[in-house]
Design a protein that fits this description.
Helix content: 25-40%
CATH architecture of the largest domain: Alpha-Beta Complex
Order of helices and strands: HHHHHEEEEHEHEEEHEEEEHHHHH
Structural class: alpha+beta
Number of helices: 13
CATH topology of the largest domain: Transposase Inhibitor Protein From Tn5, Chain A, domain 1
Number of strands: 12
Shape: elongated
Radius of gyration: 24 Å
């Protein structure tokens, strides 16, 4: 083992990179930087900063060198995205044969919040803008990110992750583009969205790929009970206790009314009116959901919609563990490359071992492996009579 290489040549990180970053597209220096990124981003104390990558990833370069790799390095992140998508499709297809379908395509967006720069700032973070945060209930400054996950059984993987720019394309059209890139479903498959993406255009885009749709509904959506035009919230005022039944989903019970018929933009679908068991007919507690599969019973429909929750966990993990909310690179090229390597790190934690695991299990295993590699390297350096000063210098603790 060389004096500079701390990760073993047969480490799972190096083996993973050899599969997803072939030499034809990624020169050896780029592959080393990517290994440093995955190593650093998976460690405790990582905050999404270039300095963290260099220090925690045991990079032998200066942080400015790594910054140059992100902003001006010669490597193709679009190819990396293509490889990751192919990995997801292959993994989901394999998992679908080993477990009971359906396959779920899950969509949502989030905001990577930043501090709005002063008008005097000479180098502000590029491509930021004002966006409404549903989480905070107010407009915030930052990057808006749209993600799509594919899920089957216990396996959930990010399929698409993109910066949303208001001036270029609408989020609805972007989701439709993602839907068009999905493999045509050969078995049960569903698209899951919240109410912001529930519209005829998105539903039809998934129909073409063989996916039914289950999504949240805004309460001002129009329905036509017995041919009478009314909104969901107005119709709810006529619902009585005898019209609903109790459904338990994920250990929580809800009163549910099931409507079947026409909705604005749809000739026939299911709309579910739900209230927590302790808040029946409370207008502020009412949540409505749409399903295009009318053969699906009410409980299963709600259980399937709850499968949307992994995308919220995904956002928490990428923000809390992988620095999606804390990066400080400023050039948009560097930012997009940072996103691509962050998602690659997520992939590695889930699929980088012999057997797929949860992200939490994967990142824990990676931290243990990196620590083991570090101790082994220090031991071998001492066995080779490398001066302590050189070892400390390489570890940047001199």
């Amino acid at each position: 083992m060389s004096h500079t290489s701390i990760l073993a040549d047969d480490s799972t990180i190096h083996n993973f990179i050899s599969k997803v970053c072939p030499p034809l597209y990624f020169l050896e220096p780029a592959r080393k930087h990517i290994a440093n990124f995955i190593t650093g981003a998976s460690q405790k104390g990582y905050r999404g900063k270039v300095t963290d990558i260099v220090d925690l990833g045991f990079a032998s370069c200066h942080r400015t060198t790594f910054g140059h790799f992100l902003s001006k390095g010669v490597w193709d992140e679009s190819y990396l995205w293509k490889v990751m998508k192919n990995i997801v499709l292959a993994a989901v297809k394999k998992a679908a044969k080993q477990t009971i379908p359906p396959i779920f395509a899950i969509y949502d967006d989030t905001i990577s919040k930043k501090t709005k720069p002063s008008s005097q700032a000479s180098h502000p973070i590029e491509a930021t803008n004002f966006h409404f945060s549903h989480l905070e209930g107010k407009t915030v400054w930052g990057h808006q990110l749209l993600a799509a996950l594919l899920s089957v059984g216990s396996l959930t993987l990010p399929y698409h992750f993109e910066h949303y720019e208001k001036e270029s394309i609408s989020k609805i059209d972007l989701v439709c583009q993602i839907a068009n890139s999905l493999l045509t479903a050969t078995g049960p498959a569903y698209a899951l969205c919240d109410s912001w993406f529930t519209c005829t255009k998105v539903i039809e885009a998934h129909f073409k790929k063989g996916y039914h749709f289950i999504g949240g509904l805004k309460t001002n959506r129009i329905i036509y009970p017995q041919g009478i035009k009314t909104s969901l919230k107005d119709f709810a005022t006529y619902i009585k206790k005898d019209d609903v039944h109790l459904v338990t989903v994920n250990h929580q019970s809800y009163w549910v009314y099931r409507y079947e018929g026409a909705l604005n933009g749809l000739a026939n679908a299911v709309a579910l009116f739900t209230w927590h068991k302790d808040a029946f007919l409370n207008s502020k507690a009412m949540r409505c959901f749409l399903s295009t599969n009318m053969e699906l019973d009410t409980q299963t429909t709600l259980e399937y919609y709850s499968k949307r929750w992994p995308i919220e966990i995904f956002f928490r993990q990428t923000k809390g563990n992988l620095g999606i909310n804390q990066y400080q690179v400023r050039h948009i090229t560097a930012i997009k490359r940072f996103w691509s390597l962050t998602i690659l790190t997520y992939f590695f934690c889930v699929l980088g071992k012999e057997k797929a695991s949860s992200f939490a299990q994967g990142i824990s295993h990676t931290r243990k492996e990196v620590k083991g590699n570090l101790f082994t390297w220090i031991y071998k350096q001492s066995q080779a009579n490398v001066p302590l000063s050189k070892i400390l210098d390489r570890l940047k603790v001199a």
